[in-house]
Amino acid sequence: MDPRFNDIAADPRNSIFEVVFFPDRVYHAQYLNATRSARYRYVVQEVRGKSEITVLKGQVFLDGLRVCNFVRIEARGGRLSEVAREKDRFLGPDIMADVGLSPVGVPRVDALLRMHFCPWINAYQVELWETLDPLPGKNHDYQVLDMMGYRGSITRVPEFASALADLPALKRIDLAFRENDVAYPWRTFVADGDAAWDNYYKRNVQVPNTQEPSSAANTVEQDGYGVDFERGWFIKKARDIPPVRYRNGMMESGNSQARDDNIIEMRWLLQQEFGGTVVFFHEVTIPPHTVEGTHQHIGSEELYYVFEGRGIAYMGVEDDPSLAKDPTVPVVQRQIYGLDPTDCKKLDVVPGSVIYTKSGGIHGIENPYDEPLRFVAFLYHST
Predict the structure, then answer these.
(1) Residue 1's pLDDT band (cuts 50, 70, 90)
(2) SS (H, E, C) the chain
């Protein structure tokens, strides 16, 4: 990180933009493994987050001399602990990580690594070093040497050597996490087939492989968290991206508005590219006289911003307190996807309208008019 960044971020005139500078300032180099000895120094070049995961790339120095490149992986293990508890087990001092490195133009290489719980960061961690050999005429400090090795928190994977040699070309790291082969608190053996996994928590991405509405071919399951080191994406014209089409989206067959030609379109602009808990950003088209079914969000939140056309939106009757108190906004009963019919507020929407739904909230939208209705939507996990 350019040291001038500290001056920019600390300047009182920039306090209003502090949130812009915050993300790359949340790690501290003294918490990395080799800094247990004052002889070592890290230069962190890039940091990426993905939900509860942090990945760092950079270089390690010993006595002021560069030793090698490194990648450090940290994981809180919150989601993994949930699925382990479903099996009446707790996470122990170690977990396993399936790590896949994908340098530009090179096939992905995978390895299963052990991650160790570190109270310094309150998370599991492992560092992948390009080499564990000391520099000529040097020796590793005993405090650091004790952490090195096949099962250590500083380790080397021979298959990863070429990928770690060229960090700028290492643009993507795929990660999935598994409980250790020793169950806690019972300290019994966990068979591979019974181990709890967090491999993106059953997530998938939507891809326009076919224009057949609601085709299973458009749902591509993900087998891990994709941590992307690209620094930006430019989409010149979202409308050039083919949509994924859905027949009676968020509606059951018994819904009175369900019909064969009730087809809506979604252009999935960004999905796995996001860090944090954002699931997607997409553009939705509700063609004339079609409906997106009214549904309830549990554990997720979503924001709609209408930018073209007009339509009718529905929100849970008590979701927005100001609407609940407004007798001029009509109340209608809507069929809720997978649930019982529920009273909702009926709302006119036009370009510039915003619908924001928290976990537990209800929303849906329809277009009874002759021109398309379009909005963009963000969805993210609320916990």
Answers:
(1) low
(2) CCCHHHHHHHCHHHHHHHHHHCHHHCCCHHHCHHHHCCCEEEEEEEEEEECCEEEEEEEEEECCEEEEEEEEEEECCHHHHHHHHCCCCECCCEEEEEEEEEECCCCCEEEEEEEEEECCCCEEEEEEECCCCCCCCCCCCHHHHCCECCCCCEECCHHHHHHHHCHHHEEEEEEEEEECCEEECCCEECCHHHCCEECCCCCEEECCCCCCCCCHHHEEECCCEEEECCCCCCCCCHHHCCCEEEECCCCCCCCCCCCCCCEEEEEEEECCCCCCCEEEEEEEEECCCEEEEEEECCCEEEEEEEEECCEEEEEECCCCHHHHCCCCCCEEEECCCCCCCEEEEEEEECCCCEEEECCCCEEEEEECCCCCEEEEEEEEECC
Domains along the chain with CATH numbers: 32-198 (no CATH), 232-381 (2.60.120.10)
What whole-number distance in Å separates Cα of residue 368 and Cα of residue 362?
Answer: 20
Lowest mean pLDDT among 48-52, 210-214, 282-286, 287-291: 48-52
Q: What is the pTM of this model?
A: 0.89
pLDDT at 11 over 80: no
